[in-house]
Amino acid sequence: MKRGRLPLTALRSFEAAGRLESVTLAAEELFVSQAAVSRQIRELEALLGHPLFERQHRKIKLTPEGADLLAVLTVAFDAIGDGLDAISDRRSAGEVRISAEPSFATGWLVHALADFRDLHPGIDVIIDSSEKLTEFRSGEADIAIRFSREQSAWSRTEARWLYDVEMIPVAAPSVFGARGLPSGPGDLSQHSLLHEDTRAVWEEWFLQSGAEPGLVRRGPVFADGGLVRQAALGGQGVGLVDTRLVADDLKNGALIRLFAQSIRYGSYFLVARDFSRLPTPARAFAGWIEAKFAAAGAPDPD
User: Containing H/E element for 156?
Assistant: First the structure.
């Protein structure tokens, strides 16, 4: 097809819907209506003579032809965006944009940034605290820091392992008062357990400790490990948290580690669209954070 006849608006609508696997999300990204996106995709299908999606109930799935076209378009649109950014010099040469999981951002990154600034005083760090994996499109993050229980790779990105999460039971000293610390896991039945997202983590910890897993059927559930940490600091109960993210709290006595038993629960990864094409400030940040975790066996950001 000649360049002058390329249906760019329709191609953009299809690429967004295919990449996000949702007409609704594509409409939000493009700031148009769902009807407009659907109409553009139907017109593109009519032009090509092939269906690009299988329409299912509240769901769309790429056909083989759609998957082939999406692979070409995503790379092409990314290259166009990168080229426009390079020409307009929109992004400061001394700036790196980081998308980080909320609990990691508050529990480790914010405290450790002083070290990065000492080493790279000319680079400003902009942090977006979000659980959503960035698409690394124009105007978004250069690098993302993501947690996953099982996943170690994401489509259209590169991922580098940072560290394995070890979860430990902690509580504020005020939780126990004159009764003293619990002598065994079974004593936790007298206290509220603080859960992150699911009670499965505590259940696994109790099983590995040889205690009755039925104890986990109690206590509030929080959407993020940072909220569990805050609740524990406030004396609301016993939390199971990432060792690295409460290192300072354990040092200053704000939290107490109750038992030696820990459990492995997922890993953190450094994610970028292409590490070899990162801007200089982003490469400096990636090198710094990888070196921090490679050198530290201890969960200490300083």
Answer: none
Of the candidates 122, 87, 79, the residue with the CA atom closest to the CA atom of residue 285: 122
What pTM was computed for the model? Answer: 0.72
Determine contact, residues 131/237, Cβ cutoff 8 Å. Answer: no
Closest CA to 192 of 205, 176, 179: 176
Q: Which of 129, 101, 125 is nearest to 112 (CA)?
A: 125
Query: Using an 8 Å Cβ cutoff, are 123 and 227 in contact?
Result: no
Q: Where are the beta strands (DSSP E) in the chain?
A: 53-56, 59-62, 95-100, 124-129, 143-148, 158-171, 193-196, 221-222, 238-242, 256-257, 263-272
- Is the per-residue pLDDT at 136 higher than 80? no
Amino acid at 252: N
220 close to 272: Cβ distance less than 8 angstroms = no
Count CA atoms closer than 13 A to 217's CA, side-chain side: 4
The residue among 178, 219, 211 whose CA lies nearest residue 195 is 219
- What pLDDT sits at residue 235? 92
Say which DSSP state 2 is in.
Answer: -
Give the pLDDT score at 297: 56
